[in-house]
Specification:
Strand content: 5-15%
Number of strands: 2
Structural class: mainly alpha
Distance between the termini: 39 Å
Number of helices: 3
Radius of gyration: 24 Å
Strand order of the largest sheet: 1-2
Shape: flat
Helix content: 40-55%
């Protein structure tokens, strides 16, 4: 739900500013949303099984990467620039 700051009480405005860590002006609007915490499922693997799974993943990725053509220097520079600007960017292949 969208709230116009001009319609908030002074206490509500103070709470919003405390949550945001910055002041808000009366011509701004704010929206808040409650999000349930993510459920983390504990691993059922022993430390030895985890190490083996990691070794297999490393081998799989090494095999996959070996079949890829290397990027040109220009493509590598562009990809790195996009990654620095867009967190989580993955080029299409």
């Amino acid at each position: 739900m969208l709230h116009h700051v001009r319609d908030l009480s002074s206490e509500q405005k103070s709470a919003v500013e405390a949550l945001l860590g910055q002041t808000v002006s009366s011509d701004e609007a704010v929206s808040m949303r409650a999000v349930a915490p993510a459920t983390i499922i504990p691993s059922q693997l022993s430390p030895r099984e985890r190490a083996e799974a990691l070794r297999k993943l490393d081998a799989y990725f090494a095999k996959t990467d070996a079949g890829r053509e290397p990027l040109s220097e220009e493509e590598a520079i562009i990809t790195e620039a996009i990654r620095s600007a867009r967190r989580g960017y993955r080029p299409l292949e």
